[in-house]
């Protein structure tokens, strides 16, 4: 851009730039407003794709072959936990070099929009299938060496800003006294579902020691992943939400084929028992997330995968209070135990349109959005909250140019600050890794372009009024 055109563009944005200059020491609300502003495209045209000069892939580290001897060792989660529970001293982790997501999640300025994806470690990746074709799901989850490899693979392929630990929301159920397993053709199934309030006698109230012992394999995978990432990306831990976990405990299987009829009926018929169970699950989730931070998680997310199965009034009664309690209690517990204060995120899948306003008033740092809510509406309902999401995953089946167009539209709507790019749900096993990579590239390239041009225009406006 020439000096003349730069000054001309600066003149067009003079009013907005003067407003920015007048807010040298803005209040928290004002800061949020500035960060959410969308840059208008009367600047040098964005060329898109790799032309933006943003490198996608980090050097790949292929350890699959050398690890086979270790990975073939079969062991149960509980037996392995007994081997690792004695490790009390916190490891010394590598310094975080890429803190982009941490800065975004805590409302700090970022030079571009950070990105990660739900289910980014999945069967769409050939390197993932190298493990999934050989080892059953539960073996992959409960073997820290495998879980670590699967956690880190997407960061090595795409240079993502975060890795989310390879695990499952249901690993907490056995600690609560509820056994489950994978059934071919049906997915996760609970062996003995809860059918009545009398069955609550089977539900355990785990202690911190129980979490450490029973889920030691998750903690070891977190620690190994944090070491293996070597500061390249933020490590995210997670848990299922109370309502979602209750849903599996009562329904006995996933909601996709059942519409959660039995689980919802339990809420209607036995509300007192439901609240009692939700409270027990909430306490367990808090303990679990705190232990994940101790093991190396630098951010944690609560997945309410069944949120969309509830009516708005049901969600307000049986999910929202417990979700809010988790964020508050996790932060207090981290403080009490002298652990790092990490960002906490929540994903109320399918309920964002009616849940966001309430969750915006919670202690969550980030609310992750599904594709069912318009970004502009989300910003209006949660002006001071960091938002995450929400590209419709089906767009990733379309040609690269279409992916780029919709990614740009999403970023224009959310703005480049107080925002983490993600999908409105998850990467599907049938997606093309190259097209998934196009989405990642476009987020990086386009958001960098917007930020760089905004900086140029602001500097020109400053010079104009000096």
How would you describe this protein?
This protein has 20 helices and 9 strands. The protein is an alpha/beta fold and 466 residues long. The strands form 2 sheets. A 7-stranded parallel sheet has the order 1-4-5-6-7-8-9. α9 runs parallel beside α11 (216-229), α13 (261-269) crosses α14 (271-295) and α14 packs parallel to α16. The chain is globular. This is Uroporphyrinogen decarboxylase. It is an enzyme of class 4 (lyase).
- Order of strands, main sheet, comes to 1-4-5-6-7-8-9
Number of helices: 20
Q: Which CATH architecture would you pick?
A: Alpha-Beta Barrel
Main sheet characteristics: 7 strands, parallel
The count of DSSP E runs of length 2 or more, i.e. the number of strands, is 9
- Distance between the terminal alpha carbons, to the nearest Å? 21 Å
What structural class do the secondary elements suggest? alpha/beta
Tell me, what's the shape?
Answer: globular
Please provide the ordered H/E string of secondary-structure elements: HHHHHHHHHEEEHHEHHHEHHEHEHEHEH
Kindly estimate the percentage of residues that lie in beta strands according to DSSP.
5-15%
In CATH, what is the class? Alpha Beta
Helix content: 40-55%
Could you tell me the radius of gyration in angstroms? 23 Å
Mean pLDDT: 85
Low-confidence stretches: 1-43, 50-88
CATH fold label: TIM Barrel
Q: What's the domain count?
A: 1
EC number: 4.1.1.37
Keywords: Cytoplasm, Decarboxylase, Lyase, Porphyrin biosynthesis, Signal
Subcellular location: Cytoplasm, Cytosol
Main location: cytoplasm
């Amino acid at each position: 851009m020439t000096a003349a055109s730069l000054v001309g563009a600066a003149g067009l944005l003079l009013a907005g730039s003067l407003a920015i200059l007048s807010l040298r020491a803005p209040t928290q609300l004002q800061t949020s407003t500035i960060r959410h502003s969308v840059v208008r495209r009367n600047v040098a045209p964005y060329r898109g794709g790799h032309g933006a000069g943003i490198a996608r892939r980090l050097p790949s580290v292929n350890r699959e072959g050398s690890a086979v001897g270790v990975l073939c060792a079969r062991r149960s989660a509980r037996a392995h936990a007994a081997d690792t529970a004695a490790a009390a001293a916190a490891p010394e982790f590598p310094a975080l070099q890429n803190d982009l997501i941490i800065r975004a999640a805590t409302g700090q300025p970022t030079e571009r929009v950070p990105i990660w994806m739900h289910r980014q470690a999945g069967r769409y990746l050939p390197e993932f299938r190298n493990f999934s074709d050989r080892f059953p799901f539960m073996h992959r989850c409960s073997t820290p060496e495998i879980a670590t490899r699967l956690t880190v693979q997407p960061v090595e392929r795409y240079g993502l800003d975060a890795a989310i630990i390879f695990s499952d929301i249901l690993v907490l159920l056995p600690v609560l006294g509820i056994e489950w397993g994978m059934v071919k053709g049906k997915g996760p199934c609970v062996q003995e579902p809860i059918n009545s309030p009398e069955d609550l006698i089977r539900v355990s109230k785990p202690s911190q020691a129980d979490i450490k012992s029973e889920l030691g394999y998750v903690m070891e995978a977190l620690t190994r992943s944090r070491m293996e990432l070597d500061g390249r990306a933020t490590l995210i831990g997670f848990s299922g939400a109370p309502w979602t976990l209750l849903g599996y405990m009562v329904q006995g299987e996933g909601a996709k084929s059942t519409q959660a009829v039995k689980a919802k009926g339990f809420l209607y018929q036995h509300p007192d028992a439901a609240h009692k169970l939700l409270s027990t699950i909430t306490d367990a989730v808090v303990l679990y997330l705190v232990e994940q931070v101790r093991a190396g998680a630098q951010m944690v997310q609560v997945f309410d995968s069944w949120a969309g199965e509830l009516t708005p009034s049901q969600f307000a009664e049986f999910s929202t209070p417990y979700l809010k309690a988790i964020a508050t209690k996790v932060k207090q517990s981290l403080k009490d135990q002298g652990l790092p204060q990490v960002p906490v995120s929540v994903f109320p899948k399918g309920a964002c349109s009616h849940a966001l306003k309430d969750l915006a008033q919670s202690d969550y740092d980030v609310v992750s959005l599904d594709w069912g809510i318009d970004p502009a509406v989300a910003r209006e309902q949660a002006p001071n909250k960091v938002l995450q999401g929400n590209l419709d995953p089906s767009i990733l089946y379309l040609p690269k140019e279409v992916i780029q167009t919709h990614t740009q539209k999403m970023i224009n709507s959310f703005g480049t600050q107080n925002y983490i790019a993600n999908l409105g749900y998850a990467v599907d096993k049938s997606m093309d890794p190259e097209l998934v990579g196009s989405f990642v590239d476009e987020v990086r390239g386009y958001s960098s372009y917007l930020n760089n041009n905004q900086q140029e225009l602001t500097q020109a406006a400053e010079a104009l009024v000096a």
